[in-house]
Amino acid sequence: MMSMRSASLSVVLAAALQLAAHAQVPSPPTSAPPPPTSSKLPQATVHVGGTVVPPPPPLRMIAPLPQGEWKLPNGDFANTRYSPLNQITTANVANLKVITTMSTGVPHGHVGGPLVVGDTMYVVTPFPDNLIAIDLSKPGGATRWIYQPHPNPRAVGIACCDIVNRGASYADGKIIYNTLDDQTIAVDATTGKEVWRTRVGNIDIGETVTMAPLVVKDKVIVGDSGGEMGVRGWVMALDLKTGKEVWRAYNSGPDKDALIGADFKPFYAKDQGKDLGVTSWPPGQWKFGGGTVWGWISYDPETNLIYYGTGNPGVWDPDVRPGDNKWSSTIFARDADTGQAKWAYQISPHDSWDYDEIMENVLVDMQVDGRMRKLLIHPGRTGFVFVLDRTTGELLSATKFEPVNWADHYDLKTGKVIANPDKQTHFGKVTKDICPSSTGAKEFVPSAFSPRTGLLYIPAHNTCMDYEGIESNYIAGTPYLGADVRMFPGPGGYQGELIAWDPVKAKPLWSIRERDLPVYSGVLATGGDVVFYGTMDGWFKAVDARSGAELWKFKVASGIVGNPITYTGPDGHQYVAVYSGVGGWMGATAFPSLSADDPYAALGVVGAMKKIKQLSAPGDVLYVFGF
C-alpha cells in the first residue's frame, strides 16, 4: 500500500488544483555567497560585488535574436531571453505605464509567456489550455479568436504542482502548444482553426505535458511530465506539417530506447558504457525511472544539436533504487533530425533530493582562458551554475550560487560531484537541514543573458529542507513519491534573489535579495540595459543590467511566476508584457483550498511559504506596459 503520508500529500495537492477543473475563458555550515550585513533586511536589498561591471569578454550569440516579435518560448533558440530592442532604456524606464490588461479567466499559475507575431499576441492559459489571439492594432487589444481544445479534465487530478502551461511556439503559420492531457496541437495563427493534434502521452499511467514545445526546422520537440507518478521520461519530435511522430528517445532503459548509438561520446568515463539506462538501476526499476523533460529545449543551428535536461529519478526514496539511475538529472545533446544522442552529462547520479535538472541551457560562445569556447550555461536546481563545452560535454566550471550543503564541489577532471555524506537521504531516517530544498536553488523559471554585459541574470531562491524516505508502491496513474519533506527558508535572512552572474569568472557581480518569498519569475534582458523580472508578492520590476539599481516597479494583481517578453507594436513603439497569476509548485500555496497549517503539504513546500497568503492571491491577468 501507499504510505498514509504519501497519500495525504497527493490528496492535499489535488485539492489545491481542483478549482480549475471547469475554469473557462470568458468570451552557516552551509557554503554560500556572503550573507547580508544586517539580519533586518528591507523587503529587497542590492548586494554589489564590485563598483563597476567590467566590459564582457569577447562573445558571440549563436542564434538569431527576436527583432520586434517574440515567436519562441524564450525568444531565441539559444534560450538567452535577450531582446536587442532599446527604446526602453535605463534613462526612461521610470516612465512606463500600463497600456492595457486582459483577464484569462483561469486563476492558476501563469508560468509561461505570450508570443507576438506581426500585429497579434497569442496567450495560452493554464488548464483548460485555451489559446487566445489578441489584435494589437486595436485600442486595448481586441480578441480576434479563442481556440478551446477541451482537454480531458481527469488530467487535473493527475498533474503535479498546479495545472500550468509553459507556452507555445510559432512556425510555418501555426501556433503549436501542448495540453495537460498529453496532446500537442497546431492551430492556424490567422484563423484559429485546428490544423492537427497528436496524442503524445497517456494520462492513465500518470503522464502529463506542461512544457513549451520548440520548433526546430521541420520538427516539433516535446517532452513529458509526471516524475512523481512513476512515468518514464522521454523527448520526441513530431513532423511540423502533419503532427506525425518522427522519433522518440527515452531517458531510461536500453540504449536502443534512448537512441544511444555509435555517435554517443560522453566526455567522462562515469557516463560511458553500454545500456547504462538499465544497468544503473535495480532490475526493472528503470521502467518507472522518471527523467522527464518538462522544462526548456535549446538548439544550436550550427551543430544541429538540441540540448535539454532531465528530471528526478522515479520514486524519491533513494534506497529503493541503488545505482546512478541513468539518465535522470542529466543534460543531453541530441541530433535534431534523428534524436540520436551525441553526449550526456549526469549532474547528480543517484539523486536523493529531487533535484530535477530541466532548467534552461543557455547557449553562447565566449572567450574562456584566452580562447573562444562554445558554452552551455546551466543554472541548476542543485545550487550550482554549470558551464560546459556544448560540443563535447566537458565541464568547465561548477560553482555554487545559493546556500548549498548537499555537496562540496565538482571534480572537473572526472566530472563527479563530491557529495556530503551527512546530507544523503535514506529510508526511515530524517536527514535535517539540507540546502537547497527539493524546489532547488532555482526552479524552471528561465534566466536571461545579455551580450552587452556578458552576465546571466538568474532568478533564484534560498530554501532548505528535512527529508525522510518512506514506503511507496507503484500503481499506474497514482503518486509514486516515497518521501516526507518539510521545507523552510534558508540561512541569511532572505528567500529570493536575482543574481547577475559572470559565467566566465564563475562569480556574482551583484544581486537583489527578496526577504519574504522566492524569485519565481522568468527574466528578460534588453538592448536598453534594462532587466525585467517579477516577484511572488506581485511587483513587476525593472533594474539596471550593470548595477542592479532598481529603476521602476509596478504592483500587479497577483504574484508573478511567468516570463516577461518585449516586442514592437504596430505603432513602432516598444512594449513589455507579463502575466500576473501566482501558482506552480511553490505558488500554489497561495490558493485558498490549500491549508497553511501542515508544513508537509504540497510535497513539503508549505513550510517555506508561510507568508504567501498574506502577500498574494490567485490571479489571471495579462499586463502590457509602454509609454
Summarize the structure in words.
A hairpin with a 5-residue loop joins strand 15 and strand 16 (245-250). The protein starts with a helix and ends with a strand. The chain is mainly β and 627 residues long. The strands form 10 sheets. The chain has a 5-stranded antiparallel β-sheet with strand order 1-33-32-29-28, with no helix packed on it. The chain has a 5-stranded antiparallel β-sheet with strand order 2-21-22-23-24, with no helix packed on it. A 5-stranded mixed β-sheet has the order 3-34-35-36-37, with no helix packed on it.
In helices, the fraction of residues equals: under 10%
Structural class estimated from helices and strands: mainly beta
- Subunit arrangement of the protein: single chain
Strand content: 25-35%
User: What is the count of helical runs?
Assistant: 5
Summarize the biggest pleated sheet: 5 strands, antiparallel
Order of strands across the biggest sheet? Answer: 1-33-32-29-28
Radius of gyration: 22 Å
Overall spatial form: globular
- Give the tally of β-strands: 40
Low-confidence region ranges: 1-41
Q: Average pLDDT across residues?
A: 92
Give the CA-CA distance, first to last residue: 60 Å
